[in-house]
């Protein structure tokens, strides 16, 4: 008996939070159905036919080549070359299926391909019975809704089409509805309808329902549109008495809708994009040439920085006052280095007992 190693109970409990944090294991890749595997094998076989069509021939004695090629065309050598290239060595399911059905493929190649030229139909549909012919479905390969020639009236996909699965019901393409996909959804109108065909065409964007392609053919207007003189026209939400956007935004109308865009950073309220559409300017900005521009406080007649020797630097919407490098900053001045040293010495002489220093 092989001894087993058990974690102490406390250690095992300690691992539990880590295990809970691990991402869930990815779902196993969906396995192909028997029909898909069979169709894949047939597709590779047909590609092998193409690849070997004129193998080792291409110049010289044409009469000899045609005679030899005619023999090679239906030879067991060519069959063997095709079979050897059907499956990758790592494809277990392909190799397993080939091994199980190799005799059927040999029989078709040597005896039946002239009578049954469609390998898929003979091999997958009639012999292995894992697929159905196009337009049919289910265990008994019944015709899809609308018939096997044009399933779902050509406007949808038949459930199980070409396989031994599904129920033959229709999954309609966009714009179509109904059991046979012959009816039009809201937003589409019937532009062609007869015993064999039904074509649904998109309405104008302003229509929820319609009988034709223009905004005058609407039965009902879409949201964001309104009926005006027999046509659905866009509602300009931006022109409403109560604006739909905040005070720091402007409204931009669009067909059937609108968007709220942020005002320029220099604006207090705005009617459009950029500093030229401000209702008012924020502090530190003033209207200049029709738009809000930064005020250069440092260039005004009235000094912004009032301390002696102080430098003024303009910034967007404001300014800063800074003493030059090496100057000492006091409450009412920027003191040069020499003056600062002199002031310090004078202060020392006024201290009691300075004679002893």
Short précis:
This protein has 357 residues and is α+β, with helices and mostly antiparallel strands. It contains 7 helices and 22 strands.
Please describe the biggest sheet, giving its number of strands, its sense, and whether it closes into a barrel: 2 strands, antiparallel
Kindly state the percentage of residues in helix: 25-40%
How far do the termini sit from each other?
Answer: 96 Å
Number of H- or I-type helical stretches? 7
Q: Could you tell me the mean pLDDT?
A: 86
Strand arrangement in the largest pleated sheet: 1-2
Over the alpha carbons, how many angstroms does the gyration radius reach?
43 Å
Beta strands, count? 22
Instruction: Please trace the helix and strand order, writing H or E for each element.
Output: HHHHHHEEEEEEEEEEEEEEEEEEEEEEH
Query: How would you classify the helix and strand content by structural class?
Result: alpha+beta
Uncertain regions spanning at least 5 consecutive residues: 1-21
- Overall, the morphology is elongated
The proportion of residues in beta strands is 15-25%
